[in-house]
Design goal:
Elements lengths: L15 H9 L5 H12 L3 H20 L5 H8 L5 H13 L5 H12 L1 H6 L5 H4 L20 H13 L1 H19 L5 H12 L3 E7 L7 H18 L13 E4 L1 H4 L8 H22 L2 E4 L7 H12 L10 E6 L5 H15 L3 E6 L4 H10 L11 H16 L5 E6 L3 H13 L8 E5 L4 H11 L2 E8 L5 H13 L4 H4 L7 H4 L3 H6 L30 H11 L7 E3 L12 E5 L6 E6 L3 H10 L7 H17 L1 H12 L3 H19 L11 E5 L7 H12 L3 E5 L5 H14 L6 E3 L4 H8 L6 E5 L2 H14 L6 E4 L5 E4 L5 H13 L11 E5 L3 H13 L19 H16 L3 E3 L13 E4 L14 E7 L4 H10 L2 E2 L1 E5 L3 H10 L4 E4 L16 E2 L33 H9 L8 E4 L6 E9 L3 E3 L4 H13 L4 E3 L16 E3 L4 H12 L8 E2 L4 H4 E9 L7 H9 L1
Parallel strand pairs: 1-2, 1-8, 2-3, 3-4, 4-5, 5-6, 6-7, 7-8, 9-11, 12-13, 12-15, 13-14, 15-16, 17-18, 17-23, 18-21, 20-21, 23-24, 24-32, 28-29, 28-30, 30-31
Antiparallel strand pairs: 10-11, 19-20, 22-25, 26-27, 27-32
Helix pairs in contact: 1-16, 2-18, 3-19, 3-20, 5-6, 6-10, 9-10, 12-14, 14-15, 18-19, 25-28, 27-29, 27-31, 28-29, 29-30, 33-41, 34-35
């Protein structure tokens, strides 16, 4: 099995059908399931009427009471639907962890200063960050009973006092708010505060605040914190009845830095003993011990940990072990059945806390990003409420083994549970209610007084800076306009409406799945999204394993694919870079094969719809052949399984995306040479070929010499799907093949991905031999930076630094090379980064548990190793790891630099350079990055909207990513490609790419005796250009993410004519596209080698005269500048893409609002 992952060791006698649902029913059909749950809730019309009446009565009494709770008031005043509310919540989220005054002031000004409220709604980056904006975090005790409320008061204060004074006030307000939701900063303080309500009959369950462990040190710290808390809470235990004693809630993710399915073996060996130790402590203290529920992808793993823990004979006779079950999950009922069977088999009594669920927006986004067919959660709140009632009924029927705990602030849910319990003849001692500290107080006061029920308060304990993750989840549960907590204070909503029956609501729906949520396959409708595989799902993992095992050792051979007879060159062995094992052989193309391919190449004459059909068919074939493809990507290219899945998906997306654009206004150029790299041997290969074929060209494909086998497989699928052999020929081999193609006049254009130096050599060869206006579409390297300021959440930043730097062994052109960390937080971030690196596994990428595979070959390994050794000799190695003895591995390494200017070149491997900066030096950092001349990707972690906008405006970079990693651009959502030394444009996977593979007719040129002096052109180029509004387009993508493509005017194009009238025509064509032009008919060709400030030249004259211009352009150092026949949008504009993770602080309010209104 994958990575040594064994099937879960579940005894068959434990509810086998329940375990089967847990393993394979993550995406169970929502409609059938909700209908079944509604039937299982078994509430007839009289029961529903009685429950709604009881619930409405509770609502009336809550409203009549003296004052609703702070949370309710806050949501009424500043719901998630108001900009001010979001700004204030955002402020708190970051302010509590920012150590330096300068950044604090910038943050406060960004969120509160009057000038910014309007600006953020305009056209700035932050406006994209729609209603979910940065952080959904409650601010300080910000509600002022006086007129005007907090916003007016803070605006006024800022005007009068300036930030330094208000900084203290705002910080104090934040901490005050924290007090309302955190019981105490330490367990002792919390227990002291708890005594007041304990005297009124409440009990407590304490939750130690904190993010998931990122490092082993974090996990040990949390383990110690839990142990101390259990010891402290023990003094509040009143006797042997667990139900009356306080308890503690434990997150498994806090106890292990790699609590994930891929690391199952480690989790069972390392996490289980930790949980057992804590459970044994809790048993000795007589406390309840609850395992908190987390994300759906870890559900089965969490149950394995729970079973292994509970099976410990030392825990026999203890009724205090508890598990939290989330009703929004489609497997909730199966989990309860399985827990009941486990308790029966082990002869235990356990507690089950039923909650609605706290990661809803994250689950929706993950399923969309992975391309899954549905969601692991219900898509409507009413469906979750139905699930809650049905599963509450189930729990109340299992009280011989389970003590049910109902966590809810919803009056209808409370009324339903009281009704069900009474109907089943249970007493109020057989179950309990639970509420969150700071919320639902009045509801539970009434229920406790009226019914003598038990109520436990779930109370967070910890420093206010750790409040973020907890509070965001609470807000998202309760901030949506449709939520009970939100409606309770809204007098316009009648009590009967607030306590309406969800069963009746669901029965009235035309469609149970919410139309507001696009599933993975429909994310880019009408284009079908690539199939996704969930590498945490048992069924998906088993399917992949079955499909790729036959190819684990099979030898695979490759050879040229020609329309004529293959002569063949030398035969070479292809070796696995991780193990050195033989993968297969390749017969390279000899010079006669190149000649044959060029002679027989014919543009694809089929009509556009037929070309589209065939490309789509090829994409389908590749998805079906995923086993062979995943095996080859691992064995030939050293790709981990997550990387292999992403690669196949990208290749399929490219083919379908370009197929959807095959109807172009202009004809194909003719013959295109596609020269692709080894680091994306399927995706970029298919992207280049797919675009050229979609436009109707003939393709001569030259794959990287390291990865010919996967290329051959891709070509075979395209040919089998119906691409004519004359339209697609494969020429595997070394640089000799590429050189032969790029100097042949029969080639009409070149698509190339690789190094900047090779691209420049290709440009010179093309200028010498091909039509002078033949396009070179080049995507080249980058020196990519990321900036992390002191408002960033370190855990998120480190997660994204690790992925950006070390995933794919750092062998992505988009990978992070130089990290800038604000000095105020540098030590924290570095310590967490180094700790997280310790937990990365290097090894054979075939194994699921492997995090970092090999670099591509011995040549790459030697080059990177000598670079690192030189840095070590200078004492600049901050962190390194051990690499496996076999294969071409380079261990992830971190080097110290002053800045990106210290990097002599792009180091194409898992080597990260780290520099620090002062808060006042951001502009200097941006200027230094721009000065490298590269402009591919940039990452930014910040919570200051204005800073994001300022940095984005100042950067000369093709793809910028905010509050996420900077790799993995998605076709049609995040068009990819750089500027300057990083590429020519247009962006691959974007709306302007295919145009470059077509040829618009150029008008007849009328020559004259015009001669434009170079000095005159230089003056025109240096004249200030008018400010033009940037064109922007929002691209489709998953929820919780903003994707925006902007078109920024490039430097002028020089219009060479020939002749004045022609140059004027050319300039008009450029201006029609929104570009800038300088007319220069008769300009001496050599001037193009030295003039500055232009982005290309246009020529409609003869080829030989044009060649001198092309040659002059090709001699330039720096960016590749084209000689153009007819300009397109990519010639006149730079495409820049900005991707912002709008859920960066853990929540997505816009999604909740949309679904609530659907």
């Amino acid at each position: 099995m994958l990575g040594g992952k064994k099937g879960a060791p579940m005894p068959t006698d434990i509810a086998p059908s329940a375990w089967s649902v847990i393993q394979t029913g993550t995406l169970t059909d929502e409609t059938a399931l909700v209908q079944r749950l509604a039937a299982e809730a078994a509430l007839d019309a009289p029961a529903r009427v009685a429950i709604v009446a009881a619930g409405a009565d509770l609502v009336k009494r809550i409203r009549a009471s003296s004052r609703p709770g702070l949370m309710e008031v806050f949501l009424a005043e500043y719901g998630l639907s108001t900009d001010e509310g979001i700004a204030l919540m955002c402020l708190a989220e970051a302010l509590l962890r920012v150590p330096d005054a300068e950044t604090m002031d910038a943050l406060i000004e960004d969120k509160i200063a009057p000038s910014d409220w309007g600006r953020h709604l305009g056209k700035s980056a932050s406006s994209l960050v729609n209603a979910s904006t940065w952080a959904l975090m409650l601010t300080g005790k910000v509600l002022d009973d006086r007129e005007g409320g907090i916003t007016g008061a803070l605006r006024g204060a800022v005007k009068r006092l300036g930030e330094p004074v208000i900084r203290t006030a705002v910080s104090r307000a934040m901490k005050e708010m924290g007090r309302n939701f955190v019981l105490g900063e330490t367990i002792d303080k919390a227990m002291d505060r708890a005594e007041e309500l304990e005297a009124k009959g409440y009990t407590y369950s304490y939750d130690m605040l904190g993010e998931a462990a990122r490092t082993e040190a974090d996990a040990r710290r949390y383990h110690l914190s839990y142990s101390r808390a259990i010891t402290a809470i023990a003094r509040a235990a009143k006797g042997s009845d667990i139900r009356s004693n306080p308890g503690i809630s434990v997150k498994l993710s806090a106890l292990h830095p790699r609590y994930e399915v891929a690391k199952r073996q480690r989790v069972m060996e390392e996490l289980v003993p930790r949980v057992r130790a804590l459970a044994t402590l809790a048993k000795a203290a007589g406390l309840g011990f609850n395992i908190d529920a987390e994300e759906a992808d870890r559900l089965a793993l969490s149950l394995e940990v729970i079973e292994a823990t509970l099976s410990d004979p030392a825990l026999k006779g203890w009724d205090g072990f508890g598990v939290v079950v989330q009703a929004y999950g489609r497997r909730a009922g199966a989990v309860i059945d399985w827990l009941y069977a486990l308790a029966t088999r082990l002869d235990r009594k356990i507690m089950v806390r039923l909650v609605k669920g706290a990661y809803w927006d994250a689950e929706v986004k993950r399923a969309q990003v992975l391309g899954l067919a549905s969601f692991p959660v219900f898509t409507r709140k009413q469906s979750t409420d139905v699930s809650y009632i049905a599963n509450a009924r189930k729990l109340l029927s299992l009280t011989d083994r389970i003590y049910p705990q109902f966590a809810t602030h919803n009056a209808h849910t409370v009324a339903a549970i009281l009704h069900l319990a009474k109907a089943q003849g249970l007493t109020t001692r057989d179950y309990e209610f639970q509420r969150l500290h700071g919320m639902g107080e009045r509801l539970h006061d009434i229920v406790l007084t009226d019914n003598a029920t038990r109520c436990r308060i779930y109370a967070p304990v910890g420093a206010h800076r750790d409040l973020l993750a907890y509070l965001v989840r609470r807000l998202l549960e309760n901030g949506a306009n449709s939520s009970f907590v939100n409606q309770i204070v809204d007098e316009e909503v009648s009590p009967e409406q607030v306590a309406a029956c969800p069963l009746t609501a669901v029965e009235a729906l035309a469609s149970i799945p919410s139309p507001a949520l696009a599933t993975g396959p429909a994310l880019f409708a009408p284009r079908r999204n690539s199939k996704g595989w969930d590498l945490t799902d048992t069924a998906d993992l088993a399917a992949i394993e079955a499909a790729r095992t036959p190819f684990a050792e099979a030898q695979i051979d490759a050879a040229p694919r020609l329309a004529g007879r293959v002569v063949g060159g030398v035969q070479l062995a292809v070796l696995n870079p991780a193990t050195g094992a033989l993968v297969g052989h390749v017969t390279t193309a000899g010079q006669p094969d190149v000649d044959t391919a060029l002679r027989l190449a014919e543009p694809w004459a089929a009509a556009a719809p037929e070309r589209a059909t065939i490309l789509n068919r090829a994409a389908d074939r590749m998805e079906t052949d995923m086993g062979r493809i995943f095996a080859l990507l691992a064995r030939e290219a050293g790709k981990s399984l997550p990387d292999a899945v992403a690669e196949l998906r990208e290749a399929v997306d490219f083919l379908r995306y370009y197929a959807s654009q095959s109807a172009q206004p202009h004809p194909a150029r003719g013959v295109i040479a596609c020269i692709s790299p080894w680091n994306f041997p399927l995706a970029i290969f298919c992207g280049q070929i797919g675009a050229a074929l979609a436009a109707g060209n003939a393709v001569l494909a030259k794959p990287a010499e390291q990865t010919p086998l996967i290329a051959t497989l891709a070509v075979d699928h395209l040919l089998a799907a119906g691409v004519p052999p004359t339209a697609l020929q494969l020429l595997p081999g070394d640089g000799m093949v590429g050189a032969a193609l790029t100097r042949d006049p029969r080639v009409n254009g070149v698509a190339f991905t690789g190094s900047t130096e090779t691209a420049q050599a290709i440009r010179r060869s093309m200028a010498e031999h091909m039509d002078p206006t033949a396009p070179l579409i080049a995507e080249t390297g980058g020196l990519n930076a990321m900036l992390v300021d002191s408002t960033a959440l370190p855990e998120q930043a480190v997660r994204d630094i690790i992925a950006s730097s070390f995933q794919s062994a750092g062998q992505r052109c988009s990978a992070l090379r130089c990290l800038y960390v604000q000095e105020d937080v540098a030590e924290t971030v570095k310590e967490m980064l180094f700790g997280a690196m310790e937990d990365m596994a290097l090894g054979d990428p075939w194994q699921l548990a492997t995090d970092v595979g090999p670099v591509i070959d011995a040549e790459a390994q030697t080059g990177i190793r000598s670079y690192v050794d030189a840095a070590r000799a200078e004492g600049r190695v901050l962190k390194d790891m051990a690499a496996p003895g076999q294969g071409t591995f380079i261990a992830p390494t971190v080097l110290k630099v002053n800045g990106i200017e210290d990097m002599p070149r792009e180091i194409f491997g898992p080597v990260l350079h780290v520099a620090t900066f002062k808060a006042s030096e951001i502009d200097k950092v941006i200027a230094t990055i721009n000065a490298t001349g590269y402009g591919l990707t940039f990452g930014l972690h910040s919570r200051i909207d204005d800073r994001v906008q300022h940095i984005v405006d100042g950067l000369h970079v093709g793809n910028t990513y905010v509050n996420r990693n900077q790799i993995g651009a998605v076709v049609g959502s995040q068009p990819f490609g750089g500027e300057g030394l990083s590429g020519t444009g247009p962006k691959a996977g974007g709306p302007h790419y295919l145009t470059r593979f077509t040829k618009a007719p150029a008008p007849e040129a009328a020559s004259d005796d015009a001669a434009t002096p170079a000095a005159e052109v230089a003056r025109a180029l240096s004249a200030p250009s008018p400010v033009v509004e940037v064109m922007a387009e929002n691209m489709p993508g998953p929820t919780g993410e903003s994707n925006r493509l902007t078109l920024t005017q490039r430097a002028p194009l020089i219009c060479l004519g020939p002749g004045r009238a022609t140059a004027l025509q050319q300039a008009e064509a450029v201006r029609k596209l929104g570009g800038q032009a300088v007319e220069a008919p008769g300009l001496a060709p050599e001037a193009l080698a030295t003039l500055q400030g232009f982005s290309g030249a246009i020529w409609w004259g003869g080829a030989e005269a044009g060649r001198r211009y092309a040659q002059a352009l090709s001699t330039r150092k720096g960016p590749i500048l084209p000689l153009i026949a007819m300009p397109d949008m990519g010639h006149t504009h730079l495409e820049r893409h900005l991707c912002i993770d709008t859920t960066a602080s853990g929540g997505n309010a816009q999604l909740l609002a949309e679904v609530g209104n659907a």
